[in-house]
Amino acid sequence: MRGFRCRVRAGAGALALAALAVLQSGAGIRAGIGAGEVRAGEVQAGAIRTGEIRAARTLPPGTVIAAADLVLPQQAGADLRARAEALVGLETRQAVYAGRPVDRADLGPPVLVRRNSLVAMIFREGGLGIRSEGRALDSGGQGETVRVMNLVSHRTVSGEVIAAATVEVRR
């Protein structure tokens, strides 16, 4: 938990703040406060960063983000709204749990080539174009580089995903 520390010092028999816990849950933020007799103690509290885009529900890997999947703070500025709009249409690369921040690093373009699927490999040089079939060794979205094994020669080549199940092979 991100947070800060504060020390509470009190004399014998004095009432002081004994515990403060800020917990993150799918329903929002909960805070618990307890008071008790403290001689000298330490209290740790969590600090919540404002301005974060959070997941409205648990998003498993492979989920294409929709506007309804994102939660913005009530007083979100134009910059934060623009950042949220830029996330719509991207796909989760790993699970993002409800209430947790949505990090751009966990997202990517929608996958057009899935690992172990058959793909068309296209090689273009000048006016010559060669098309062959291969098996994708990686998953990738538009513009990403993936490895593909040629089914005839069993050689592994790299190429750029240009369309669904289509990879353009480079030298």
Task: Give a description of the structure.
The protein is mainly beta. It contains one helix and 15 strands; from the N terminus they run ββββββαβββββββββ. The strands form six sheets. It has a five-stranded mixed β-barrel. A hairpin with a 2-residue loop joins β14 and β15 (166-169). The longest helix has 10 residues, at 78-87. The two termini are 48 Å apart.
Question: How do the strands and helices of this protein lay out in sequence?
Answer:
Elements: E1 3-9, E2 15-25, E3 28-37, E4 40-46, E5 54-55, E6 70-71, H1 78-87, E7 91-92, E8 107-108, E9 111-113, E10 118-125, E11 128-136, E12 140-141, E13 145-150, E14 156-163, E15 166-169
Parallel strand pairs: 10-15
Antiparallel strand pairs: 1-4, 2-3, 5-6, 7-8, 9-12, 10-11, 11-13, 13-14, 14-15
What is the compact description of this entry?
This protein has one helix spanning 78-87, and strands at residues 3-9, 15-25, 28-37, 40-46, 54-55, 70-71, 91-92, 107-108, 111-113, 118-125, 128-136, 140-141, 145-150, 156-163, 166-169.
